[in-house]
Amino acid sequence: LNEFLLLAFADTRELQLLHFSLFLGIYLAALLGNGLIITAVACDHRLHTPMYFFLLNLSLLDLGTVSTTVPKSMANSLWNTRAISYSGCAAQVFLVFFLLGGEYFLLTVMAYDRFVAICRPLHYGTLMDSRACVKMAAAVWASGFLHGLLHTANTFSIPLCQGNTVDQFFCEVPQILKLSCSDSYLREVGLIVVSACLAFGCFIFIVLSYMQIFTVVLRMPSEQGRHKAFSTCIPHLAVFSLFVSTDIFAYLKPPSISSPDLDLVVAVLYVVVPPTLNPLIYSLRNKELKDALRKVSSWAFFSTGNTAFALYK
């Protein structure tokens, strides 16, 4: 195979342009939200803490995820084509598994950070010093890279002879496996099951961590302390719930309920929606982050205004 044909959102030119416009708006929102968080955390010294360091890494992963899938789909709609090269498809598979796997491991690390901060506050400075945070972040990126490499090598070692049409707007492994002409696709299915078991272990760790966190928070005598603890935990729990529920449904749903429309909706939910909503979720209840974002936005506005005025003169 030299190329694959991706799923087209629409057949008429008007609907293709509508799809391009919608995805463009979503993509720009994701770029703006995650870009602001990265800039705010990097520039504001008050945010140089483990929690915001991991949040910066989450924004980087989200930017990578949405940039892997959405621009190609937009370009196909704009140029009225469905083609993606074989190497481009392999790159998409690798990056999706790399970035989503890394995000899952990072959410587990962030749960551990919240657990130590609330349940072991006296040991927080020792357990979560800068060296430990860098090591955890490096482990997250390395694990995601290995995760993507294994799935990509396994998927594209399978002989494909059922055509080249992928029923998804990006190269999704379950859809590529449908093109297999032998039982060798079971190797990738087995690898997906192993990944699911590992993800389930992370899920159990996060659930147990939050059970202890909420037990400690509810015993706090200060209402202000409870509010501050909840404001740092609830966003992480919301992001994790959205990410896990859509991923599990996408990869482990029974074939009997699978349909092209349902698969498309689920793919948008786990690849496009979380990177766009995560900055909003994290900034809604976090006063420190909102203040930093306000400063960054004001600085960007005045810098743009001064540049435009200088060019005008």
UniProtKB/TrEMBL annotation:
Nuclease among keywords: no
Record keyword Transmembrane present: yes
InterPro entries: GPCR_Rhodpsn (IPR000276), GPCR_Rhodpsn_7TM (IPR017452), Olfact_rcpt (IPR000725), Olfactory_GPCR (IPR050516)
Membrane topology, as annotated: Multi-pass membrane protein
A Pfam family hit: 7tm_4
Subcellular location field: Cell membrane
Location (main, coarse): membrane
All residue ranges annotated as the G-protein coupled receptors family 1 profile domain in the record: 33-282
Keywords annotated in UniProt: Cell membrane, G-protein coupled receptor, Membrane, Olfaction, Receptor, Sensory transduction, Transducer, Transmembrane, Transmembrane helix
Residue ranges crossing the lipid bilayer per the database entry: 20-43, 50-70, 90-112, 132-150, 189-217, 229-252, 264-284
Similarity section: Belongs to the G-protein coupled receptor 1 family.
Name the record gives this protein: Olfactory receptor
